[in-house]
Design a protein that fits this description.
188 residues; Tetracycline Repressor, domain 2; transcription; Tet_transcr_reg_TetR-rel_C_sf; HTH-type_TetR-like_transc_reg
């Protein structure tokens, strides 16, 4: 079997295709990659990419679904009384910082949101589902943390997400990492 330096023989083809697509979206957005690019990167034929994912939308949905599932698995259950809701909130903020700010990337969901006008409806649905996971989880944390009703807690969850995404854009635009903590200091 012929392997390139980017090829990872321990992963199956579908996983390598999704990994390549995710990297491409994070680096350049939905519109900036093709099946040919992915095939070339992982050392297969373009027809093989199409075999696993008939359309670019199918591939993006698979990437978003995997991303959502992995993200959900990392979240502690906010209803567990032994876990401090303040620690969960700080962990969420720190996790976002590690993934976005320290890696000098925009997030997969931010890049797809920026390209929303290009996305097939199925990708938009998968993207909305990811944001709903974040909103729902944060809502539950704010219910416990601030003793709020669901509507008030969901509003705070949306405000925090807006702050997180705004802070990451500010950091990427200015190159000044300190903006992240300055922007999120009110949430700590």
């Amino acid at each position: 079997m012929k392997t390139s330096s980017n090829k990872q023989p321990d992963k199956d083809t579908k996983t390598r295709i999704m990994d390549s697509a995710e990297r491409a979206i994070v680096q350049s957005g939905y519109g900036a990659f093709s099946f040919r690019d992915i095939a070339e990167e992982i050392g297969i034929k373009s027809a093989s990419v199409h075999y696993h994912y008939p359309t670019k939308g199918d591939l993006a949905v698979a990437v978003m679904t995997r991303f959502t599932d992995e993200f959900r698995a990392l979240l502690p259950d906010p209803k567990v009384a032994s876990i401090d809701p303040r620690a969960m909130l700080d962990g969420f903020i720190d996790g976002f910082k590690k993934k976005i700010v320290e890696q000098h990337n925009m997030s997969l969901c931010t890049m797809l949101t920026a390209d929303k006008h290009l996305l097939p409806e199925s990708v938009g649905v998968a993207l909305a589902e990811f944001y709903e996971v974040k909103l729902s989880w944060l809502t539950q944390v704010f219910v416990r943390l601030n003793n709020l009703d669901e509507d008030q807690a969901r509003l705070k969850a949306g405000q925090l997400l807006a702050s997180l995404h705004g802070a990451s854009v500010l950091v990427q635009a200015t190159g000044e990492v300190d903006w992240y903590e300055k922007a999120l200091s009110l949430w700590r």
